[in-house]
Amino acid sequence: MFGKRKRQVVGCDVGSSAIKIVELKPLKNDEFQLVHAAIGDLSPEAIVDGAIMDSSLVVEALSRMISDNAVKNPYFGGSLSGHSVIIKKIQLPAMSEAELQESIQWEAEQYIPFDINDVNLDYVVLDAGDGDSMDVLLVAVKKDRIADYTSVVVQAGKEPVLVDVDVFAVQNAFEVNYGLSGETVALVNIGASVMNINVLADQVSIFWRDVAFGGNQYTEAIQRELNLPREDAERLKLGETVGEHSLQQVVGVLNSVSEDLAAELQKTIDFFVATSSVDRIDRVVLAGGGAQVMNLDTILKERFQVDVEVMNPFRNIRYSESDFDSEWISRHAPAMSVAVGLAIRAVGD
Q1: How far does Cα 288 stand from its chain's mean position?
Q2: Number of domains observed in the structure of the chain
Q3: How many CB atoms lie within 10 A of CB 64?
Q4: Buried b / exposed e along 269-305 (16+ C-beta atoms within 10 A)
Q5: For FRET with 243, which of 31, 55, 61, 121 sits at 20 to 30 Å CA-CA?
Q6: By residue range, what is the domain housing residue 264?
Q7: Residue 259 Cα distances to 159, 222, 229, 235, 248, angstroms
Q8: Helices (H), 135-229
Q9: Is residue 211 a contact partner of residue 218, using CB atoms and an 8 Å limit?
Q10: Average pLDDT over residues 72-97
Q11: Interacting residues of 110 by C-beta distance below 8 A, sequence separation 6+
C-alpha cells in the first residue's frame, strides 16, 4: 500500500445526511498528518436512498466546505455503496493477466445483475494459486451513480480522480490505524441510510454486504415518539437537550432501534458463518455516524458475545492541536472513517 507516494487525494464522503472531507499528508515511516477535516450537513431531500435528488444542494454544501476550509488540492476521491454497487468474489480458471483482461467482461456478465454496458467494472486477483483456478474480486458500479458523484465534484471546482466503495474505504482506514491480525473482524459502517458490513479474516476481506438500515431509523423513531421536527430529533439523538426534552427521555427509543439494528446484523453474520469456512466473528468494529448512538456498542456486545469497539480513524493520524480541536476530532471521528480511508489513497492508485 505504501512506498513512494503520488499526490494525495482529498477524501470526500458524500453521505445522505452530511458531507465529510479529509486531506492527509504522507510522512516518513508510513504515517500521515491531518491537513483538513470538515463535516457539513445536507438537507434530507438532497440525497434519498443513496441517490442524489437535488445536486444543487450538494454542490452548494461542498463548495462552501471547500471555501471555508481553504482546500487547495484539486484532486478529490469519493466512494459509493448501496444497490448500485455489486461486489462478488468469483473463481475462474487460472490464466495470465492479459487473458484475464480480455475475458473479465464476459465473465462478469454472469454475475452482475445489470447490463454490463451500464456499469464501470474493476477487479483484482485475490489468490492466483498454484492450481487450475484463481479467485478474483469483482466490483461493478452503475455508471449513472458515478456520473452523479463526479458531476458534483466538478461543479464544486475540483477534479474527481477516483471512486471507491465504502466498505473498502473503511477497511483502508482500519488497516492504517489498527493494523491487521489473524482475527476475524466485522467492520460495520453505519451511515444515515445504509449499513456497510465487511468481514476480514486472516488479513483478507472475505465478505461484503450493504443493509438498508442506518441512523435515519433512530431519528424517525424519536420523531414519532415525541412528535418533533426532524432537526430536533437529530439533535436529541446526538445527546443535545432540545427545549424540555433530553437524551434520557429517548434512551428507550434508541435502545429499541439498536435491538432492531442488532437483529439485522445478526442475520448477515449468520449468513456469513453458514456460507463460509469461518465459524465465528472475533471482534466487531463500528464506524460511521451511527456508531456513536448511546448503548449501541453494549447491545451488540451482549448479543454477539465478542469485543465491540467504535473506530477512531484518526488513531494513528498525527495532527496539531493548535489546528484541530481534539474534542471536535473525538466527536466526529467515527463519521469520518470513509473520508479518511479515501484520503489515504493517491492519484493513480
Answers
A1: 7
A2: 1
A3: 14
A4: beebbeeeeeeebebbbbbbbbbbbbebbebbeebbe
A5: 61
A6: 10-218+252-343
A7: 42, 15, 24, 21, 17
A8: 143-155, 166-178, 215-226
A9: no
A10: 90
A11: none
Look up the CATH number of the domain holding residue 324.
Answer: 3.30.420.40
Q: Say if residue 130's pLDDT is above 80.
A: no
Give a yes or no: residue 237 inside a domain.
no
Which residues fall within 8 angstroms of residue 59, CB to CB, at 6 or more apart? Answer: 152, 155, 156
What letter does residue 110 receive in the DSSP assignment?
T
193-225: string of b/e by CB count within 10 Å (b at 16+)? bbbbbbbbbeeebbbbbbbebbbbbbbebbbeb
**Dihedrals phi, psi of 154, to nearest 5 degrees:** -65, -45
d(CA 291, CA 335): 8
The C-alpha cell that represents 190 in the structure block: 453505519
Positive or negative, the Cα torsion across 242, 45, 40, 327?
Answer: positive
- Residue 281 and residue 306 in contact, taking contact as beta carbons nearer than 8 Å: yes
CA angle 210, 112, 344 (to 5 degrees): 50
Report pLDDT for 4: 52
Output phi, psi for 118, to 5 deg: -100, 5
Q: What is the pTM of this model?
A: 0.92
pLDDT for 1 equals: 41
CA atoms within 13 A on the CB side of 75: 16
What is the three-class DSSP state of 311? coil
Residue 2 above 80 pLDDT? no
For every residue of 51-108, DSSP letters joined together read EES-HHHHHHHHHHHHHHTT----EEEEEE-STTEEEEEEEEE---HHHHHHHHHHHH
Residue 305 domain-assigned? yes
CA-based angle 135:138:144, to the nearest 5?
175
Cα distances (Å, whole numbers) of residue 193 to 54, 82, 320, 326: 17, 9, 33, 28
Owner of C-alpha cell 463500528: 286
Q: Which pairing describes strands 10-14 and 75-80: parallel, antiparallel, or unpaired?
A: parallel
Average pLDDT, the chain: 91
**Spatial contact of 217 and 256, defined as CB atoms under 8 Å apart:** no
Residue 167 belongs to some domain of the structure = yes
Nearest to 214 by CA among 34, 48, 23, 27: 48
Has residue 209 been placed in a domain? yes
